[in-house]
Design goal:
alpha+beta, three-stranded antiparallel sheet, binds fe (ii) ion, about 475 residues, Jelly Rolls, globular
Length: about 475
């Protein structure tokens, strides 16, 4: 049974916990905390109602914007999305090492996660283990070993990224959804309109836990979608650079660079060029585009807990941004995702739009927006996008995943070596999306002539522009 609407989403709520955030973490920054400088014109847009935020989230483009809903965790019924086991460990901890020790006491290899250290200012470094294991307990052992070896300094900040369940499980709210996500609920569960969007990925994002000096280094997402972040406790600085500068800035700064405090003079200059800088506070929910350079840095004494969902809103401009992923002159190449996975993701988008458009009670506003999205994919997409729609029109489309079911069971890799987290995931994304996106939908009645065009050579088509 699918959960539709807010009454079911209220299941996210349970008995009240001891303090407002439930995590026993300071909710204010210490006096004198060093922060990034923020000019007035760099501040994010702030909205104060659920309606305003949902309109921005679901129907507006996000490039060059950060839109914040203060107290959004409560307003969107996300207060109790973090599993109690993690809450217990956070409540007893003021450092990530302490949190990891608490989790380890529980003994069970229930979670997988990536760990990062920041022993050298301005650099993020993943803590990898010799084995292929992705279990958090093994990463914790790897951290201890690297500390013993002197690779990780004793006082180096530690970041936990993409913490999720090691094994798939049935979602606690949506009984027919098989997920790895460790969050108990998501923004996805708050509104039924989430299921009508061209894309919404909530399965693989995971939870991020950090302390002062941790965060995600400078990057662009592996596909050019949007992210909605929830911040349960702690403070996090978050910056984006202009879409128009995405090539020059990433070339200058490099992948994975951290803007640690105190800032160097070049860092101050770089932040001066940022399009938007937000100080994300406890309880904030915010939306941004991952298509432009961005980075995040935890500040303050509190442990920071956040999580992200990735989506493409029902907006033609947003879909046009997405379909320029993995195109040389549009999306810097060192951030590309696996090209075949991107093909599958585009298939999901076609399926999702088709399924939503076929729903009998679809609101006119969403219908019109989705039709605009379809037009963009047909007219401005690469050869593979146009081929997908041609096959859809002809009723001849069969998903490759149906032809090759084994691919859906393969395990993802370790990602691209950055704490890319702030919303983007490793290249397994598309395979995760398909788990929640329903079955292949029958073609709509053909509305355009089924003529051959550039053919289904997706990889060559995108790379052919080089
Ligand atoms: Fe990101």
């Amino acid at each position: 049974m699918e959960v539709e609407g807010r009454p079911e989403a209220a299941k996210c709520l349970d008995a009240s916990r001891g303090d407002p955030s439930g995590f026993h973490q300071p909710d204010q920054l210490p006096a004198g905390e060093l922060l990034w400088p923020i000019r007035d014109e760099q501040r994010p847009e702030v909205v104060h109602t659920v309606e305003e935020f949902l309109d921005a989230l679901l129907f507006q483009p996000h490039v060059d914007r950060v839109v914040v809903l203060p107290n959004g965790v409560e307003l969107l019924n996300q207060q109790h999305a973090i599993p109690e086991k993690l809450c217990r460990a956070v409540r007893k901890s003021s450092t990530i090492r302490s949190f990891l020790a608490e989790i380890s006491k529980e003994g069970k290899d229930e979670y997988r996660a990536r760990l990062w250290h920041y022993s050298i200012p301005g650099m993020e470094k993943e803590i990898k283990t010799g084995e292929k294991s992705k279990l958090m307990v093994d990463k914790i052992a790897g951290l201890a070993q690297q500390e013993a070896d002197g690779v990780v300094l004793p006082n180096a900040p530690i970041y936990v990224s993409e913490l999720r369940n090691a094994e798939k499980h049935w979602h606690p709210l949506v009984k027919d959804e098989f997920v790895k996500t460790s969050t108990m609920c998501d923004v996805y569960d708050f509104t039924p309109d989430s299921r009508k969007m061209p894309l919404w990925e909530r399965s693989e994002g995971g939870i991020f836990l950090g302390e002062r000096g941790t965060g995600s280094g400078f990057h662009i997402d592996q596909c050019m979608w949007s992210n909605v972040g929830r911040n349960w406790c702690g403070h996090k600085l978050f910056a984006i650079w202009p879409w128009a500068d995405r090539f020059t800035v990433t070339e200058k700064v490099g992948k994975g660079r951290m803007l640690h405090l105190p800032l160097t003079d070049p860092d101050v200059e770089l932040l001066g060029q940022a399009k938007c800088i937000a100080l994300v506070k406890p309880g904030d929910v915010w939306v941004f585009s991952g298509a432009q350079p961005h980075t995040a840095l935890v500040v303050g004494d509190a442990l920071n807990i956040s999580a992200y969902e990735s989506l493409v809103p029902a907006n033609a401009e947003a879909v046009f941004t997405l379909i320029r992923s993995n195109i040389k002159d549009m999306h810097p190449k060192n951030f590309w995702m696996d090209d075949e996975d991107l093909d599958e993701l585009f298939e999901d988008v076609v399926d999702n739009i088709q399924r939503a458009l076929k729903a009998p009670s679809l609101e006119q506003k969403i219908k019109e927006r989705l039709q605009e999205c379809t037009t963009v994919m047909r007219e401005r997409g690469d050869a593979y996008c146009r081929e997908l729609w041609r096959q859809e029109d002809c009723g001849e489309r069969q998903r490759r995943r149906e032809q090759d079911s084994s691919s859906s069971e393969s395990e993802e890799g370790e990602g691209d070596g950055t704490a890319e987290g702030e919303g983007d995931n490793p290249s397994k994304l598309a395979k995760a999306v398909k788990k929640t996106s329903g079955n292949f939908s029958d073609a709509l009645a053909a509305s355009v002539a089924c003529v051959d065009d550039d053919g289904p050579t997706s990889k060559k088509a995108r790379n052919g522009a080089e």
